[in-house]
Amino acid sequence: MTALRYVYAVCRPFRSALQAQLTGVAGAPPKQLTHHGLVAVVSTVPETDFAEAPLRAHLEDLDWLTVTARAHQQVIDALTAVTTPLPLRLGTVFRDDSGVRSMMEAREEDFRRVLDRLQGRVEWGVKVYVETEPTEAAEPSEPGPPEHGAGSGRDYLRRRRLQTRAHEDVWQRAAEFAGRLHETLSAFAEDARLHAPQSATLSGASGQNVLNAAYLVPRADSEEFVELVDREKDDAPGIRVELTGPWAAYSFTGEFAEEPEVER
After folding, report:
1. Contact 210, 180 (CB under 8 A)
2. Pick from 50, 72, 216, 218: CA 20 to 30 A from residue 190's CA?
3. In whole angstroms, what is the distance from residue 93 CA to residue 179 CA?
């Protein structure tokens, strides 16, 4: 069986050892491939799964994609603990070491530029959810006249108006809070990115996502950033703030990486 080269990330040489038992995609341990003072972190994968045609088919298989994305992310997380990686797209595969080196040489200037910008920095994710919403008024199971006279119809309509108004108030407060939080965190961070709100169906998170943002923060300032988020979320009754990280700076690598769709 022919083995291809799966590339996780490009980084500068680092001295710290990766975890001894670390495995990546298809269960193979990652290794370092050095070229012109840059390091590509790679592992071998079978051609039967990762050649162009089978890989394209696998990317339509949600179960396979989830397992592969988690293995990819596991290697990126291990690298983030010891260096500043520039993650590459999920499913970046080459025929052999020579192909990887050719890619590195062709994009060397871009790699160095982005690595210079990201050096010593990590990404923190912040999401804001509307946690509570007004309880919907009970509705009759079938349409029909009010059961308790003319006043019941008016009472029902009044309850519906109050419910609608309360629903709008919840969303307005959440939107205003999310805007203030993003402004505060953006002023602290070196850079920020706003992503589209996540679907509750896909993410499995409770509540409605009203802010999905990423912040580029010097690693040395991470503790202060976490404390800032904690202080701000104390003033948000009925609104849930979720902080994740530190991660490799997926949101700030331009065209090189797309964050794997995997729960983190």
Report:
1. no
2. 72
3. 40
